[in-house]
Amino acid sequence: INKIWKVVAKNKRVNKEWEELMQRSPQNTARCYQDLCTAPMTKKPRRVFPLRGKQYEGIWEYEVTSGDRVFYIPYEEEKKVFVFYAG
Q1: Phi-psi region for residue 53, left (φ > 0), alpha (ψ -120 to 50) or beta?
Q2: In the chain, which residues have pLDDT < 50?
Q3: Which one, of 65, 66, 69, 45, lies nearest residue 56 by Cα?
Q4: How far apart are CA 44 and CA 69, in angstroms?
Q5: Strand pairing of 60-63 and 48-50?
Q6: 41 near 67, Cβ under 8 Å?
Q7: Of the candidates 58, 83, 79, which has an alpha carbon nearest to the alpha carbon of residue 1?
Q8: What count of other Cβ atoms lies within 10 Å of the Cβ of residue 6?
């Protein structure tokens, strides 16, 4: 059974960035949210992937549009997705 992940924004700024993303690209942002809630650690070529390099360990990138990204950290034990950048 797929557990639903809780998606949380780091702060009000990130929340505002997310809302602006919804305005610019509602369908893509809704799909991103759906994926973050259900399978945030499922790689999709050139769309969803973990960042490389020691300083980025644990950080994932979701390409919402060609110019917009969401960066997040999935916490598997808690089933929580911590979004720290959207835009």
Answers
A1: left
A2: none
A3: 69
A4: 14
A5: antiparallel
A6: no
A7: 79
A8: 13
- 22-43 residues labelled b (16+ CB within 10 A) or e (exposed): beebeebbeebbebbbeebeee
How much is the pTM?
A: 0.93
64 closest CA partner among 16, 6, 25, 9: 25
User: Rounded distance, CA 82 to CA 79, Å?
Assistant: 10
Q: Specify the pLDDT at position 60.
A: 98
Residue 17 and residue 87 in contact, taking contact as beta carbons nearer than 8 Å: yes
Order of all β-strands in the sheet with 80-86: 6-9, 80-86, 69-75, 60-63, 48-50
pLDDT confidence of residue 3: 76
